[in-house]
């Protein structure tokens, strides 16, 4: 590859909510998965507290990975996946409540897209939210 692959960071001065998310399957390595879940929760808190687009904070990223949807869809994507990943955790309902309370203000209800990509998560969010609510209702039947 001839393209320069410089590394950048996000922090309080250079927010990047839409790159701070990770969840790994827990069946293959429970200890490592738990560690990743802890970090995913920390990253979610960080990305929610210091909201902003990485391509506005990191000038070098703009030419390669400019974001169309911004960071709002990633915050909701993180919240709903963290809700699913923490099913036996006391903070579980916090993630679901976050997703429900912020769905309108963060755009998941207003974007009518059928595309799902590295950048645009709204179609996936709508499916994930529907699946979570369907599973919740099954548990109470």
Total strand count, please?
0
- How many strands, what sense, and barrel or not for the largest sheet? none
Spans of at least 5 consecutive residues with low confidence: 18-23
> Treating each run of at least 4 consecutive H or I residues as one helix, how many helices?
6
User: N- to C-terminal separation?
Assistant: 54 Å
Q: Please trace the helix and strand order, writing H or E for each element.
A: HHHHHH
Gyration radius over CA = 16 Å
Given the helix and strand composition, which structural class is it?
mainly alpha
What's the rounded overall pLDDT mean?
75
Name the overall outline.
globular
| Whole-number total of structural domains | 1
- The fraction of residues assigned to DSSP E strands is under 5%
Helix fraction by DSSP (H/I, runs of at least 4): 40-55%
Written account of the structure:
The chain is globular and about 50 Å long. 50% of the residues lie in helices and 0% in strands. It has 6 helices and no strands. The chain is mainly α.
